[in-house]
Amino acid sequence: MAARAIYAPLVCTAALLLAFVVSPSAGLSLDTVREFLTREEDTIVFSLIERARYPLNRPAYDPIHLGDGAGPGRRLNASFAELFIRESEAVQSKAGRYQSLQEIPFFAYRVPFTLAPPYNFTRELYPAAAFVNVNDAIWSMYFNELLPLLAKNGDDGNYAVTVDSDLACLQVLSRRINYGRYVAEVKFRGDQQTYTSLIQAKDRDSLMKLLTSEAQEDVVKRRIEKKATVFGQSITSDGPIKTGVNNSSGTNFKVDPSVVYKLYDQWVIPLTKQVEVEYLLHRLD
């Protein structure tokens, strides 16, 4: 009886461990990862098109004085854009958006409960590495590098809808780039011996080289440029206005395809690989 009493919890513990290790992989594969990343391209292009509808609206990004609400002797300063995104994420956090590991907020929140119905999200990521993200870099890149390329100079006063479209762009870029964690997990499972030796040696350069496929990256960049060309055409009753990727003016596109190409070439793909390397370096923790 004593032996069975000890054996039973051991079996339960082993079963739980197996459930954690084995079951997530059933839904995570190179095919599902590629499908997700390809579908995110559509969302990214449409989000950029929506943001390009509005001018830059610079006052939305200038620091504003909020008074002394931070306490005696302290003054709060933030832009309207930051405040809007903070408050929007807080509401979405209460609604359970960030229960899924695919979604990572730009600002941390402690939410004791959510209003959303409970759902048991699968945990495909290795727990000790799931925290890896580059949201700070995405935030800086978007506002300092991408936005001036995306929006024309001007001010129409539509600050709320403008920043709301910024938030949509930030969220899909964060989801797409930080999905590198899932890419790294799939690749690790496919060749554990090679990756384990490089991780143990903390060989960042070799990991980056192993993760890089320039031919595949070129396919992705050309595809996203083509999608921007197709989705960004102006449609008339007679059909789409004839345009091409090499159109010198770019005025017929709702978003310049070359900007979308540059987004992937200079930021999305490099940042995704940075996430992959950082995830792998914590994969054996």
TrEMBL record:
Record's GO cellular component terms: cytoplasm
The answer on whether this UniProt entry bears the keyword Signal reads yes
- Reported EC number(s) for this entry are 5.4.99.5
SUPFAM superfamilies given in the database record? Chorismate mutase II (SSF48600)
Record key words, sorted: Amino-acid biosynthesis, Aromatic amino acid biosynthesis, Isomerase, Signal
Q: Which residues form the Chorismate mutase domain?
A: 165-276
Tell me, what is one Gene Ontology molecular-function annotation carried by this entry?
chorismate mutase activity
* Alphabetical GO biological process terms: aromatic amino acid family biosynthetic process; chorismate metabolic process
Annotated metabolic or biological route of this protein: Metabolic intermediate biosynthesis; prephenate biosynthesis; prephenate from chorismate: step 1/1
Has the keyword Isomerase been applied to this entry?
yes
Catalyses which reaction? chorismate = prephenate
Q: Where is the signal peptide?
A: 1-27
Q: What is this protein called?
A: chorismate mutase
Please tell me the species this chain comes from. Panicum hallii
